[in-house]
Automatic annotation (TrEMBL):
Database matches in PANTHER family: CAPSULAR POLYSACCHARIDE BIOSYNTHESIS PROTEIN
The organism's taxonomic lineage, starting at the top: Bacteria, Pseudomonadati, Thermodesulfobacteriota, Desulfomonilia, Desulfomonilales
Top-level taxon in the UniProt lineage: Bacteria
Protein's name in the database: Coenzyme F390 synthetase
Entries under InterPro entries matching the protein: ANL_N_sf, CapK_Type1_Caps_Biosynth
Amino acid sequence: MRGYLKSLFRNAPAPVVEWAQIAYHFLPARWRYGRSFTNAVRLLSESEHWAERDFIAYQERLLEPLLKHCYENVPYYRSVFQERGISPRDIQGISDLDKLPYLTKETVRKKQKGLLAENISFLDMEEAHTSGSSGTPLTFYMDRNTRPVDRALALRKLLWLGYKPGDRIAFFKGMPLANPAKFIRYFPGARELRISFHNSDDKRLNDMLDAMQYYRPDFIDAWPSCLYILAQWIAKTGRSIAPPRYILTASENLYPHIREKIEKTFHAPVIDWYGQEESVAIAMQCSQAKGYHIQPEMGVFELIPTDKPGLSEIVGTCLHNIAMPFLRYRTGDLAVKGDVQSCPCGRKHPLLEKVMGREADFVLTPERNLVSPLILDFAFIQLDEIREAQIIQEDIKTLRVRVVPWETLSESTRATLLREIRERLESPTMNIILDETDDIPRTEGGKRPFIISKLRTEDYL
Ligand SMILES: [Zn+2]
């Protein structure tokens, strides 16, 4: 039914869609998202105070029927089990999961149909995509019970920060809009202000600030790159807005200088969230912002070693999506486990020290040094003439730095930037090209990755 309504409104004239969306947001969340959402909220309120053993027991309770389902109904997994000469009974718990191979994006792309459960109707699935901010976009399918868990976790994120019904939230995202003129929209029912950053010129930045001054959000939920531009605009124009209680970031890597600039300008702490469209592994910061609490309710979170010292890759097994099960899915995202054992907040959700860039986000120098985006990010500190920047590794010897200035780029800023980048790369031979441009195009999903590497680093390491 919901799919039918969606297609109905997709073809409707723009004003009808707009009013339908506003009316929809007047509905309480449990009606908008259905019974699965209510169930997920109930689960999360119970699991809030679970101990580590309770999380494991919960995951194993869901894992057993999931594996049986994969074996009986999903052709790809059936052949995986058969090739290894095992059956679901051989996986008695989470520690036995390593009897199964990792699932790569490449396999999902190639197998597609073979990963779909034969006993689930297409009408009970929804198509989903990754934005392709690193690598090629991926199409996959989810059953209708998985997104509600994601949404319930997003609600938990707010509740952990003291959100109460009636609090106002402003969203800043980069998604393209059907009608770009309506880049600011207000949904009174949900008390949400939604602002699209897809095209943000000076007039639009001023309009956004006007809306923020009028609306005075308690929470700002934003992609870091969007809020960073607004923070620079506030500093440039001397305007100000009432500080929100918290700023929530997600969807893009949160680099230290971006966090610092946002916190300083908006006078509010930044709380970050890690997740992915495939919903296999989620981790979020609490109000202490010490590390990231893994959310075992979504899936089994594994960390596997990489060729980058101290960094592990995040691998996730989603316990909910039975339409296209993701078992031991390699996200390509990197994290530092660290030794933080407990958080002052007292929650027993396991901790990660840091979530880092995606695999492709690293630069490889001709001297075979891998340079983290976090290090290159520091090259841009206090270069206030720069509005946006992107680094593209064209080949092993060439780095293209695209820069969008607010007005013009002075010779001294150019020289400082080139010097800072070279120092951080520690590479005398890398050819660095500085391109001044009017715009850095966003990906189809609206993202603007800081680093794009055209290298396959494994060919060189
Ligand atoms: Zn905590």
